[in-house]
Amino acid sequence: MPAQIRTAVVPVEEIFALRWAVLRTGMPREAAVYPEDARPETFHVAAYDEHGAVRGCVTFFPDAMPGEAVPAYRFRGMGSAPEVRGQGFGAAALTAGLRECAARGAGLVWCNGRTSATGFYEHFGFTALGEEFVLEPSGPHYVFVTKDLDR
Question: Does pTM surpass 0.70?
Answer without folding.
Answer: yes
